[in-house]
UniProtKB/TrEMBL annotation:
InterPro entries: IML2/TPR_39, TPR-like_helical_dom_sf
Name by which UniProt lists this protein: Tetratricopeptide repeat protein 39B
GO cellular component, one term: nucleus
Protein's organism: Grifola frondosa
Top-rank taxon, per record: Eukaryota
């Protein structure tokens, strides 16, 4: 604990104290961490404690999305931002700044200005940018209107510009140190400042704000910068991620954040059962931040879909709908599709009641709808339009969250493919007269969806995800024609997609998945053509005049397609 009054000139001396608060937080002693901050700095006048306490409240607010938590976070982050501003180097008078536009040595916004700062002022500049970013995000989430979004977007731009100048400063002083033979880095720059700049520059790379959604560029340097803040060598992969998690799990055996990370890693390795164990333990090790339970419930809902344990997934969606406020529309739809999958009159009746609510539960952030919520609202309206019926809704929902990607092959073969084949058999009975199928208008949508899902399932049987851990002891009959059948399933979507009436997104996503399958086969040029077709903006299913607006999850697909093209360029697995 500090002795004597606070001196802004000695603000950096508080770093060990705030590091201890961070240690408590990462060890799942969140309340103790908050109490320590308040005891160390009762007046919240210290640079690192005022902003550090604000960061804790920011995490709480973003986890819960409750108005009360968001307002508290906004107030504390704003206070921290003010404290940081008070520690910054004072800018020159207006005449001096005007002269600085001509005389470089008097410029108050460039690297020279940063060089003229003391170490504390540079730290304050960094922390000011961090807290301004937090304040902007909270404002966008809390207000939800365009006017506030414009204001906070300008703050984000200020944040990015500060980080950019700090990044240039590091580049220049490191180059100067190297020229003096004392490189590769300037040893006078402390590690805390350097790591903070790397995180900001590369986590909020200013160039992304100049790109359209899904824009491509070389992100290698950006990723390198993000890695620099943690370690000093290249070659990050799943195995390296596991090593890092193992290191931190030894330091924080009850650290909820590292349990989240381990759970996510298991899911990426197609081990959903192990992922669920991690999320269950994450709920057991701490009960101070109840909102963190919702992270576990969300991840377990998806992991249980990957195990095709519909009852367990249903329970998680119910918990989310009861306690969480992130996306009530999505949670409610998740409950409904699980009930439909389980079947039974009572379940279907409840599902119908929930589907009625879904469109009215949508939220807006910065005046814009959330794409996933738009998707589930469309599906809910389709459910009503079709007289209370959807085909394979839980499996389609699982696909959106990469549930099929991370589904063990034994689950696909024994549980999922039989369901799809049953639907296709029913559809085949009406292939000569589609108008006699169900309501008379949904035959082609259902056929394309079933084939799309079948193609995805067979693709992961033929070519498991590159990060999947394959259980060599599993005893299943792998279809020998999985690759050919997957190709045929996607091609049938291309053929029949012209007759789709509502689910237009299927054709575009089918081209994307088809491209990835071709890349797995080794036909990378054909894969590139299909990915470029997705990004071309051309209507792939019907004439341009027949579809209104965007298809579902369009921006998300563009991001995926750009990433896939980049992987092709770098000869990486898809």
């Amino acid at each position: 604990m500090p002795s004597g009054p606070y001196s802004p000139q000695r603000a950096i001396d508080d770093i060990p104290g705030i590091s201890y608060a961070l240690h408590l937080f990462l060890a799942s002693h969140m309340v103790e961490s908050e109490d320590y901050c308040k005891k160390y700095d009762p007046n919240m006048e210290r640079l690192y404690f005022a902003t550090g306490y604000g960061l804790i409240q920011f995490v709480k607010g973003m986890m819960s999305f409750e108005d009360e938590d968001l307002l508290s976070a906004i107030n504390h982050v704003r206070h921290g931002n003010i404290i940081a501003s008070q520690h910054r180097k004072r800018t020159a008078s207006l005449p001096t700044r005007l002269v600085g536009l001509v005389v470089g040595s008097l410029n108050t916004s460039g690297v020279g200005f940063i060089k003229s700062m003391t170490a504390v002022e540079r730290h304050a500049e960094l922390v000011y940018a961090e807290s301004l970013f937090e304040k902007s995000l909270l404002g966008i989430v809390y207000s939800g209107d365009w006017l506030a979004f414009i204001k906070d977007a300008l703050n984000l731009r200020t944040t990015i510009n500060i980080y950019r100048q700090l990044g240039k400063y590091l580049e220049i002083v490191d180059a100067e140190a190297q020229a003096r033979g004392k490189g590769p880095e300037d040893s006078s720059i402390d590690a805390h400042f350097r790591s903070g700049v790397y995180l900001g520059v590369d986590g909020l790379d200013w160039r992304i704000w100049k790109e359209p959604v899904g824009g491509r560029r070389n992100r290698r340097n950006q990723r390198l910068g993000l890695r620099k803040r943690a370690f000093t060598f290249e070659g990050v992969d799943i195995m390296m991620a596991q090593k890092i998690l193992n290191y931190h799990k030894k330091r924080y055996p009850n650290g909820v954040f590292f349990l989240f990370g381990q759970g996510r890693l298991h899911l990426c390795q197609s081990q959903p059962a192990l992922a669920i164990e991690c999320y269950q333990r994450a709920m057991q090790v701490q009960n101070q931040y109840r909102n963190m339970y919702n992270i576990s419930h969300w991840e377990m809902a998806v992991a249980n879909l990957a195990l095709w344990d519909i009852s367990a997934s249903l329970e998680c969606w119910r918990n989310l709908a009861s306690d969480a406020t992130w996306s009530k529309a999505t949670y409610t739809y998740g409950i409904a599709v699980c009930l439909l999958e389980l079947g039974g009159d009572k379940n279907c009746e409840e599902a119908g009641s929930l589907m009625e609510k879904v469109p009215n539960l949508r939220q807006r952030i910065a005046g814009k709808s959330i794409p996933l919520e738009k998707f589930v609202a469309r599906k809910a309206r389709k459910f009503k339009h079709q007289g209370g019926r959807l085909v394979l809704p839980a499996l389609e929902f699982a696909y959106l969250f990469l549930g099929i990607t991370h589904m063990p092959r034994s689950i696909i073969v024994t549980k999922v493919l039989p369901l799809i084949d049953e639907v296709l058999l029913k559809l085949k009975a009406h292939e000569n007269d589609p108008s006699m199928y169900e309501d008379g208008t949904s035959y082609w949508d259902d056929l394309c969806l079933a084939n799309f899902l079948k193609g995805n399932c067979l693709r992961y049987i033929a070519y498991p995800d590159p990060d999947a851990v394959i259980d060599n002891l599993e005893k299943i009959d792998i279809p020998s024609d999985a690759e050919e059948s997957a190709l045929a399933a996607f091609e049938s979507v291309f053929t029949d997609g012209t007759k789709i009436s509502l689910d237009h997104y299927l054709v575009y996503y089918a081209h994307y998945e088809y491209a990835r399958l071709l890349a797995c086969k080794g036909d990378r040029e054909s894969a590139r053509k299909h990915l470029e077709l997705v990004l071309s903006g051309k209507p792939l299913e019907i004439s341009a005049a027949a579809r209104k607006g965007k298809y579902s999850m369009e921006n998300a697909l563009h991001v995926r397609a750009h990433a896939a093209l980049e992987a092709l360029d770098q000869n990486r697995s898809l």
